[in-house]
């Protein structure tokens, strides 16, 4: 079994992420990190988000042994113009699902947590790569997902409450792509590591893994998906969005003209500056506030 004992301590989560992005390790790595208050996600903090109604169905899912909970088990209906819409999370239902052994998965917490958004902006600008942040809250002795492979260039795990046991399997087979949903074979287990608060684990793209909470504790960890963004990827995104927004009756000439205009803009732009703007856009907020508008 591979030895994954932590031999490095990082001064901050941002430094851990930037180091991973810069060094591009070719195998799983365990380390320690100094947790700042912004990244210290606890059950109490998640309770606060639930009680304030900050979490919607778009930002949360529940899974137990690789089976997703249906929307009806987590949401509370809201009536709008005579129709009922199940888009708000019921705090009581969410807690019952966790009590029943479901892992709660929160996506993009920086959307409602200002401190996390600020830290994410600083981090992506430092490492010049995109960041996909998630929070996994797992009940004692349970596992939300079977062994699998992630498509992110790197997944960086930071344990913030409790203890979780991680199992690492084989490296991705030659030619593996994100479209291949083949799971690692159980006999390909290569390492196990127990993460406690402040422990971290870096998992390269496609490396097989699975995890379960220690039987004695509820586990919470942050998961950061690091992805390198190329100008070619940005060009594809720009083309897709432009073509999607064109009217259905657009002519071939109009479509070709739109394509050439975007291509010309990319060819005459600073590629590094475009990438930096692209990865940081979702974390930026404008300077205008409603109180300022009201005072005009």
From TrEMBL:
Keywords: Iron, Metal-binding
Signal peptide positions (record): none
Cofactor(s) needed: Fe(2+)
Cited SUPFAM superfamilies: Clavaminate synthase-like
PROSITE patterns linked: JMJC (PS51184)
The name this protein goes by in its record: JmjC domain-containing protein
Pfam families, sorted: JmjC_2
Occurrences of domain JmjC (ranges): 106-243
Cross-referenced InterPro entries: JmjC_dom, NO66-like
